[in-house]
């Protein structure tokens, strides 16, 4: 992965044009990797993006005894779980990334015990694990939290009816994977409905599991025997958040581009809001969107909600677009209490945003001004890059390790669309006499 001690230097003024292809979904592939622990066999996952989060999950699975081969050139991950012996996912890796906590469910299902560190990741707010634990307890698992670890033991998992207090994605995934090998039928009420849940269910069903209702608020899992499960070859769905990011970047710069390898029905609400702002979006082929904008955007309001509502992961990007829109917009963040940390950075660029608890009131300004900003989390980092592309003058974006968690070849893809953006060492100083096009230290 890229050296974290780097920064992006961005010059604005260039509309993004051309085409960009969307990578596999980070939030899907990480859970597919965890699910590969269930069968005593080999799983092959395709369309795997090269991300730091993927490498962390590789480390977690390797620690448990999986043998992994990752062909980064072709995006193919081969996971051999025949000799899984470990049940401890240590804080060395799990504390770096919340998604790795979903190894808890498959470990309990297959090994009947697990010891998994409490999760880490972006500090966007409270993301509790009690829903995960209550679900596993309902299946007959004894769970204790001690010294920063969740200890789970179950001589036998038994199907149960579980109603989640909120439609937690991680809890739905953990319970679903544990239930695959439970005795009897499990019903998850108020389940998360994200496309990544559907992708995971498809992966598990191809493996030999019996899951119905994924993508609705009620998922039914009929338990099978360990011997019923087998290896699988599966292609990860496209990343809807990455797609929304490039759509936003094109619109922000009044550009015109084709977004390829996209599932439009995964972005219905977000696309509708972009159209409400005044952007032009057209589906030209089943998996290709034409996106453009040539006028100043209009203000609009939205509330983040679990899928199929407005994605919280695209909130910062939409707020950036609204920072120079006509009129006053109101953004309500209903999921994470700390997901407005990018507001301070947008202020530095001249945005007029007032925060009132979980509401942000945005009065559009004529333009943003380039300056130095710092990524506060993954999606805020992408939003600040887009702010730099639409601002007047030069912007510098630091703390790129956040962006590396979720965007494959982000700089290279933006440069492919014509962006004047360079990734350079943190202490690099750009001279006026340097030929930008031939700069040897440019990183993709």
Summarize the structure.
With 444 residues, this protein is an alpha/beta fold. It contains 14 helices and 24 strands.
Can you give a write-up of this model?
This protein is an alpha/beta fold. 29% of the residues lie in helices and 25% in strands. It has 14 helices and 24 strands. Strands 22-23-1-24 form a 4-stranded mixed β-sheet, covered by helices on one side. Strands 2-15-17-16 form a 4-stranded mixed β-sheet. It has a 4-stranded mixed β-sheet with strand order 4-5-3-14, covered by helices on one side. The protein is globular and about 65 Å long. 51% of the residues are buried. Residues 121-127 and 438-444 have low confidence and may be disordered.
Radius of gyration: 22 Å
Number of strands: 24
Mean pLDDT figure: 92
Task: Give the percentage of residues in beta strands.
Answer: 15-25%
The biggest beta sheet is recorded as: 4 strands, mixed
- The percentage helix is 25-40%
> Ranges with pLDDT <50 over ≥5 residues?
121-127, 438-444
Quaternary structure state of the chains depicted: single chain
Number of helices: 14
Calculate the terminal CA-CA distance, rounded to whole Å. 11 Å
């Amino acid at each position: 992965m890229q050296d974290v001690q780097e920064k992006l230097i961005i010059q604005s003024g260039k509309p993004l044009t051309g085409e960009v292809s969307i990578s596999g979904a980070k939030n899907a592939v990480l859970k597919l990797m965890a699910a590969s622990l269930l069968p005593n066999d080999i799983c092959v996952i395709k369309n795997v993006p090269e991300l730091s989060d993927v490498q962390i999950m590789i480390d977690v699975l390797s620690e448990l005894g999986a043998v992994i081969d990752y062909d980064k050139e072709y995006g193919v991950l081969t996971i051999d779980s025949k000799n899984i012996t470990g049940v401890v996912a240590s804080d060395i890796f799990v504390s770096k990334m919340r998604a790795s906590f979903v190894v808890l469910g498959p470990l309990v299902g297959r090994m009947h015990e697990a010891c998994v560190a409490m999760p880490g990741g972006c500090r966007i707010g409270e993301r509790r694990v009690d829903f995960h634990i209550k679900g596993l307890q309902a299946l007959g698992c004894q769970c204790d939290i001690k010294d920063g670890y969740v200890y789970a033991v179950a001589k036998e998992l038994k199907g149960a009816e579980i109603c989640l207090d909120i439609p937690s994605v991680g809890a739905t995934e953990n319970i679903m994977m544990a239930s695959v090998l439970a005795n009897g039928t499990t019903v998850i009420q108020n389940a998360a409905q994200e496309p990544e849940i559907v992708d995971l269910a498809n992966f598990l069903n191809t493996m030999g599991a019996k899951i119905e209702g994924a993508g609705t608020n009620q998922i039914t899992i009929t338990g099978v025997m360990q011997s019923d499960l087998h290896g699988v070859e599966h292609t990860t769905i496209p990343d809807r958040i990455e797609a929304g990011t490039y759509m936003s970047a094109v619109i922000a710069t009044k550009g015109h581009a084709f977004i390829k390898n996209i599932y439009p029905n995964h972005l219905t609400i977000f696309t509708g809001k972009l159209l409400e702002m005044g952007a032009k979006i057209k589906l030209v082929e089943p998996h290709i969107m034409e996106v453009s904008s040539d006028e100043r955007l209009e203000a609009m309001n939205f509330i983040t909600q679990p899928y199929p509502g407005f994605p919280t992961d695209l909130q910062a990007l939409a707020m950036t677009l609204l920072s120079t829109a006509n009129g006053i917009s109101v953004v309500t963040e209903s999921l994470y209490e700390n997901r407005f940390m990018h507001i301070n950075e947008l202020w530095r660029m001249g945005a007029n945003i007032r925060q009132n608890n979980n509401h942000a009131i945005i009065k559009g300004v004529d333009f943003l001004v380039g300056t130095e900003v710092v990524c506060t989390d993954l999606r805020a980092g992408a939003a600040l890059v887009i702010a730099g592309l639409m601002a007047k003058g030069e912007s510098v974006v630091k703390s790129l390790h956040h962006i590396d968690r979720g965007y494959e070849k982000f700089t290279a893809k933006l440069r492919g669309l014509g962006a004047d953006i360079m990734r350079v060492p943190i202490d690099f100083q750009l001279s006026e006499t340097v030929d930008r096009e031939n700069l040897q230290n440019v990183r993709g």
